[in-house]
């Protein structure tokens, strides 16, 4: 049995029946993996993304399997739109049990020449967006007697990461926000946690491992796979790359009754990668 097949049966069917979940950046990659598992477990999932093509494909994939899902166009940097979308979801589906702040932007760039707009774009998506969405669901979750917020963090800011000033600063802010909101909103029974994923081979990561076009390597994709396999052997103590399902499992756990007494926690889900880097 493959790792992902084994993981498919971890949670009981119907675990999240009746829940309404909003997943930002839920059209692709880790976000879609999270949306998929939540829907498989019975939640109605609202996927939010800036890109209509991502929304259409993700929604078709979910609804064709009989899952309860809908899609909404949203740029998390726009607080007024965030509030309007969240209110609309609450009106339409009656509640919001879970917010997954997954939308993120990122790229490698030297700090010395990073433009103000480049800095702003990433910090606004990762940090401001997380705050805007969390603030928008607060009154709904408070009125219904509780809810869960799970934000996507990272591990790169634990040591600092050259060429990632914008993203590491933003995710450090997400960690601080997680801890602060968890205590501030505990009386309303809103659990606020975060997950710091390790390396998941999304398209961007594959590109980073791809040899340059002028490398003369005829099958560049195969070369990338070889380099990625080598990294799994040497850079990830548990010996494999992550899958969106690895992160989704943690979200489902936190959304389930098992997450009832967990708030303010930041869970590293990375096969041991960052600790291994920290010791080398
Ligand atoms: N290096 C340096 N600057 C970059 C860059 C790069 N690789 N990519 C974008 N920028 C700069 C742009 O030049 C622009 O700055 P400028 O106006 O001074 O030229 C600024 O960032 C905004 O870029 P733009 O593409 O207009 O913004 P956007 O809001 O449409 O996109 C980003 C947001 C920048 C985060 C974009 O990379 C993106 O949408 N990425 C897809 C999502 C993603 O990154 N997912 C990974 C999650 S970990």
Any descriptors?
globular; 7-stranded parallel β-sheet; single chain; 10 helices; alpha/beta; Rossmann fold; 280 residues; binds coenzyme A
Written account of the structure:
The protein is of the alpha/beta class. It has a single domain (20-278), classed as NAD(P)-binding Rossmann-like Domain (Rossmann fold, 3-Layer(aba) Sandwich). Helix content is 48%, strand content 14%. It is built from ten helices and seven strands. A seven-stranded parallel β-sheet has the order 3-2-1-4-5-6-7, sandwiched between helices. The longest helix has 29 residues, at 116-144. The mean pLDDT is 94. The site of coenzyme A (COA) has 12 residues, from helix 5. Residues 104-107, 109, 115, 117-118, 121-122, 125, 204 line the site of coenzyme A (COA).
Report the C-alpha radius of gyration, rounded.
Answer: 19 Å
Enumerate how many helices there are, as a single number: 10
Taking pLDDT < 50 over at least 5 consecutive residues as the criterion, the unreliable ranges are none
**SSE string:** HEHEHEHEHEHEHHHEH
Gross CATH architecture: 3-Layer(aba) Sandwich
CATH class: Alpha Beta
Q: Which ions and ligands are bound to the chains?
A: coenzyme A
Distance between the termini: 33 Å
Broad shape: globular
The chain-level mean pLDDT equals 94
* Beta content: 5-15%
Q: Sheet with the most strands? A: 7 strands, parallel
Which class do the helix and strand fractions yield? alpha/beta
In quaternary terms, these chains amount to single chain
Helix content: 40-55%
CATH fold assignment:
Rossmann fold
Domains (count): 1
């Amino acid at each position: 049995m493959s790792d992902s097949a084994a993981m498919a049966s971890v949670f009981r069917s119907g675990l999240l029946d009746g829940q309404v979940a909003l997943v930002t950046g839920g059209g692709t990659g880790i976000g879609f993996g999270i949306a998929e598992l939540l829907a498989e477990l019975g939640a109605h999932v609202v996927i939010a993304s800036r890109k209509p093509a991502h929304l259409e494909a993700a929604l078709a994939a979910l609804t064709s399997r009989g899952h309860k899902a809908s899609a909404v166009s949203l740029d998390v940097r726009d607080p007024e739109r965030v509030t309007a979308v969240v209110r609309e979801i609450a009106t339409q589906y009656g509640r919001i049990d879970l917010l997954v702040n997954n939308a993120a932007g990122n790229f490698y760039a030297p700090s010395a020449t990073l433009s103000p707009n480049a800095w702003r774009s990433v910090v606004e998506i990762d940090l401001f967006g997380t705050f805007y969405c969390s603030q928008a669901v607060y009154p709904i979750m408070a009125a219904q007697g509780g809810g869960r917020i799970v934000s996507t963090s990272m591990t790169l800011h634990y040591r600092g990461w050259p060429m990632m000033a914008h993203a590491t600063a933003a995710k450090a802010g997400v960690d601080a926000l997680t801890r602060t909101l968890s205590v501030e909103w505990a009386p309303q029974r809103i659990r606020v946690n975060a997950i710091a994923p390790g390396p998941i081979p999304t398209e961007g990561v594959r590109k980073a491992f791809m040899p340059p076009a002028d490398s003369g390597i005829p099958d560049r994709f195969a070369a990338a796979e070889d380099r990625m396999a080598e990294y799994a052997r040497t850079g990830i103590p548990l010996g494999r790359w992550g899958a969106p399902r690895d992160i989704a499992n943690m979200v489902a756990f936190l959304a389930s009754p098992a997450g009832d007494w967990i708030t303010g926690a930041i869970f590293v889900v990375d096969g041991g990668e960052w600790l291994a880097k920290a010791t080398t």
